[in-house]
Specification:
281 residues, mainly alpha, globular
Length: 281
Amino acid sequence: MRLRKRITSAICSALMVLLGLLFLYPLYIMLVNSFKNRAELYMSPTALPSTFRFENYLTAMDRMDFMTGFSNSLIITVTSVSLIILLSSMCAWMLARTNDKKSTLIYFAFVATMLIPFHTLMMPLVQLMKWSKMYLGIQILNTRRGLVFMYIGFGMSLAVFLFHGFVKSIPISLEEAATLDGCSRIQTFFRVVFPILKPTIMTVIILDIIWIWNDYLLPSLVLNSKSLRTVPLSTSSFFGVFTIQWNEAMAGLTLTIIPVVVFYFCAQKYIIKGVVAGAMK
């Protein structure tokens, strides 16, 4: 019996290792080819480079205008994630503590929006942005604040779902005690409830930073000016109509994912605990 368990465990471990290598294989291809010249890349895409050419990264940074794209991505990501956390946590708290049909309907409306694919909203969204400029004088297209506004709208549903599940697990007696001590509702939320939400907050931060930093489609619809391009949009400069500089493109893509990979490894210990706490409780 013990031998069978050991064999099963060894087989499962081997399968997990193979699956992990399968997922890491595209990253390996991208990384090794970012150090090659074009001849080496076309000769053997999977082989290690004979010489590590770091000039590919310097060329990629120049073509991408990397620092401008990095600053735009950083501003948009940090602002969007901060507002999503603040607004969704307050919304989820109010919905969880208000036991009536109206709050239940609003909550299920948030959950239902997670099932709507973004691609079905692309064309109506662009038309709405043009309409807001034409009739209301509100500039959404080609602005960072317009892109942040849209990220808040698309990110609220999942965040409210996660926060709502976690808030219901918090004893209401803690909030009643804070009220008896003289705290207002806002003070009760920020001094009592919000600090307890740390696991779910970390989960929302991780998921939304990975999503917003790597997103290409929504910024491509909103941002037209080169000075406002995010890092993913800047990588389009490598893909021309007739030629593609694959080695420089690989270097640019590597630069794009390095910040979010570093952040993920620093914060990964919170993600499983936060998802389980927010979705299962």
